[in-house]
Amino acid sequence: MTATATDLALQMEGVRKVYRVGDAEVVALDGVHLTVGADEIVALVGPSGSGKTTLCSIAGGLLTPTEGSVIVGGQDISQYSARQLTGFRRESVGFVFQTVNLVPFLTARENLLVVDELGPRTGRKARDRADQLLEELGLTGRSGNLPAQLSGGERQRVAIGRALMNEPDLVLFDEPTSALDTQLGDQVVKLIRHEMKSRGTAAIIVTHDDRITHYADRVARIVDGRVTDAGSRDA
Amino acid sequence: MKLALRELLRRPGRFAVATAILALIALLLMVLGGLLDGLVAGSTGALRAQRGQLIVYSSASQESLVRSRITPAVRQVIEKTVGVGRVAGLGSVQLGARIEGHGPRDLVPVVLFGYELAPRGLPDAVPAAGRVYADRSLQSEGVRQGSTVLLGPARTPVEVVGFLGDSRYSLQGTLWGSLQTWRSVLAANRPGERAGAGVDQALVVRIGAVDSSTQAHAIDRATNGATKTLTIPQAINALPGVAQQQTVFNQIIGITVLIAVVVVGLFFALITVERVGLYGVLKAVGASSGILFAGVLLQALVVTLIASAIGVAASLALDAAIPAGSIPFVATPARLLTSTAYLVFAALLGCAFSLRRVLRVDPAAAIGGEQ
Questions:
Q1: How far is A207 from chain B (nearest CA, A)?
Q2: Averaged pLDDT for residues B219-233
Q3: pTM of the model
Q4: Pairing with B371, which of A21, A49, A91, A144 sits 20 to 30 Å away (CA)?
């Protein structure tokens, strides 16, 4: 089945990213074409330095491409200013970082609500959503705990909850299981798939972990800044 | 903003060192300011208490009460000058006083003023010869209503009939009596400085609606340069040492504020360096640099206000603990508020050094750098 533009959570066309290091230019991405459907989970794999993180950063509005277009949830963010990208990240994408990176002095619930506090506040609506997410993630009893009082898996679930707080079009996972043991990593991946599919939210999971690829709808491979195999989408 | 406040509440230990250092700086600022105010108040009270706008000295006196002499003829000219209202004589003499309860060689330095126009805090009627009002600071020396104080080497007795506040002069307690009392005490104890009949040291002048400086010039013109007329603030600044005290203390206060800027700047620069990772994550999830920097400013403001509150409490405690007349220290609301304002300014300025670092935090770093 071919997805139409409106079905797509992410559409990258001819994306090129060049860094200048001293007098030299380093091409991190070179003519990347990648689409992700509205409810699709794509595992992005490739060797270190292949451009996975750069691709993810551009898709999430953390970096701007040197060339090409990036459309997320119908918004062309290729030419967005820094201020526009800040608003875009706050409202349209979610991130789960490799090292979890929760705010250490906030409780689990407050870590979810921080997303709302950074922009125009919605108050009760945000609090209700945070409580709902915590319940769905099995963290209701831990909502008042600080990150240091949570297990690795619980922290990862809080991070997933934070990424879903703004009801994003696309969630970007950066090596979500790298710091977890096999059993916990498996649980987290199942949880990610469940949460994404139950909400119809698209996700890109940057990983080296073969276990994750089994839970993804598609595996895209990137080598030397080029997507060599975008995989095939399940019908 | 809420994030910044929560960090303050949940990690108070992180800010304790900066708060303690700033509290010490606040106390230093307030003590320095209080000492300056105390010194100035103790040196100038007698002039500030005057209810005229101008003080007339003889031109040869170099604006010194001790050297000044105004003759009756000059006084008559001034009284007839257009715009001049009440003209009142003023005289002073510094002497050692023997106070009841003190040993015979235990002299308390005082300044006896003779006046015609009652200074602030005294009734209009001038006390009878040999009777005086005393500055309240002399109560700590044992002076009471009805006490007899023996003045100078001649041990001229004067009886204290009441008290007034904030009238110290040259950091000494003052006594206030009639010009007749002053003349007789001066003649008995400083025969070489005696003032003839009708001769005053200076004149206190009340004027109409005319500008004080303009009227002062008019008086000096009318006396053909025999007088030097100053407004009360000018007369205060002309007192020996007052301007120098203010300059020195204000320079020390300025340097202290500069130190506060550096302390706050360094502290929040370090905290910002520690938070680079956290700021990267927060920027990645949608925080603007403005929100993050506003949080830093808010934390600096709260830390400074807490430190200032500690400084204010310590200053007030110090003010209450210091015996009257021992150390010239006063903790006035104006000084405490000004010191707090200086510290807040220093804190906000110090924080500005962190702004560049906050702006430079790259949200892409949160997701593993730029490669």
A1: 13
A2: 95
A3: 0.80
A4: A91
B286-300 pLDDT, tens digit per residue, is 899 899 999 989 999
DSSP per residue, chain A:
-PPPGGGEEEEEEEEEEEEEETTEEEEEEEEEEEEEETT-EEEEE--TTSSHHHHHHHHTTSS--SEEEEEETTEE-TT--HHHHHHHHHHHEEEE-TT----TTS-HHHHHHHHHHTSS--THHHHHHHHHHHHHTT-GGGTT--GGGS-HHHHHHHHHHHHHTT--SEEEEESTTTTS-HHHHHHHHHHHHHHHHHHT-EEEEEES-HHHHHHSSEEEEEETTEEEE------
Q: Do A166 and B284 touch (CB under 8 A)?
A: no
pLDDT of residue A235: 37
Q: How far is A61 from chain B (nearest CA, A)?
A: 8
Q: Contacts of residue B11 in chain A, CB cutoff 8 Å? A: 105
Q: Which residue has the higher pLDDT, B78 or A4?
A: B78
Question: Which pair of tokens denotes residue A123?
Answer: 């108050």
Strands B108-115, B227-231: parallel, antiparallel or unpaired by DSSP?
Answer: unpaired
Tell me how far apart the alpha carbons of residues A214 and B131 are, in angstroms, rounded to a whole number: 107
Contact B284 A54 (CB under 8 A): no
In this structure, what DSSP letter does residue B15 have? H
State which residues of chain A have pLDDT below 50: 1-3, 234-235
What ranges do the domains of chain B cover? 2-44+242-368, 46-238
Q: Which of residues 154-183 of A touch B (CB under 8 A)?
A: 162, 166, 172, 174-175
In angstroms, the CA A54 to CA A204 distance is: 13
**Is B369 in Cβ contact with A53 (below 8 Å)?**
yes
What is the arithmetic mean of pLDDT over B26-47? 93
pLDDT for A184 equals 78
Chain B residues in contact with A95 by the CB 8 A cut-off are 284-285, 366-367
Q: What is the pLDDT of residue B158?
A: 97
